[in-house]
Structure of Phosphate-specific transport system accessory protein PhoU:
Amino acid sequence: MREAYHVELDELAGNLAKMSAQVATAMETATKALLDADLALAQRVIGDDAKVDDARAECEEQAYALLALQAPVATDLRTVLAVIHAAESLERMGDLALHVAKAARRRYPNNALPDVVRPYFSEMGEAVVSLARRTEEVIKSRDVDAARSLEADDDRVDEIHRHLFSVIMAKDWEFGVAAAVDITLLGRFYERYADHAVSVAKRMVFVATGKMPGYGPGDDF
Amino acid sequence: MREAYHVELDELAGNLAKMSAQVATAMETATKALLDADLALAQRVIGDDAKVDDARAECEEQAYALLALQAPVATDLRTVLAVIHAAESLERMGDLALHVAKAARRRYPNNALPDVVRPYFSEMGEAVVSLARRTEEVIKSRDVDAARSLEADDDRVDEIHRHLFSVIMAKDWEFGVAAAVDITLLGRFYERYADHAVSVAKRMVFVATGKMPGYGPGDDF
């Protein structure tokens, strides 16, 4: 019984890691679609989003079945619940990649981004995709230190995000309100995506340590 | 055993309903702070957000204890898991009210909103607070029809949100990029808040019917 249970639990974590890989690829492709005004890439992300939603529904069903049939306790229970939460965050990351792809499609054949802000989005894209790929590793390894190291990348994303605001709100901004609105929303999609990646990593720390980081004073990372 | 279990489950649903009331009040107060550039109200929302976070942590702990000690199955298991998900959405709604309050504070003593868009935010505020208050009712009643009726209000919020974009992107927009950026983000906060309220209601439908609306073709509401 316990044996079968741990096989199922490993399978569940494996599916979650696969979801991380899916949403990393989605955001990588969406960013390329955005930077290059590439309609085919945007369509691919938009078409693939249903797969992420399906993967999430499958993870959740698997987790529910585990809870109902095996009634896990202690660390095992925490792991299953962490998977349920993480699957929700990962689905949301897929949605955010979808939003980026839709923004690229909406402005096609124009580029949604004026040249002056392209480097920021290129860097934010790389940072958040790296976050998602390392989240995949954390799900596999449950390495607490690796999870904590995600925080630095998230800080970098927040920094670029803040800087973007100063660029579009500067007096010499010459690309008008519509571009500023696009950039505002796009910046927020990347920032939220990074937050969700960190939240998945935090859940995995919770699994490994039994303590949820960020829920008590001094307990943040 | 079962008896005690149902008492605890009712208590858990009661705490969730209380969280709904908290985040409804938070958004109501934040909207007033935004519309009237009222710093004291904004500060109140900002100061109270920790209470929502605490309530969520408490709901989650209570749900974990229930799962570990009672190992519920079938509808009972679904209910506990729905509560865990709903508590996460409700905490997020509290965060979004916090963001609105912070936007009001950031622009104080100025008003963050030009007069021309105030009616839209006034109406969006009323619609989303009404959504949260009705979500509270749905949590208490588990009334499937009441949950479905939330969809119409959510559509109304989406409609105002879309219209806002056409206002700020119009050629005769005269309030500059900074105001447009504020309005873009604020509009998104209200729209996300409404989405989360609907998602909580959907979870409650899942509890009552065993089917998650929006997970299959034709199953959306």
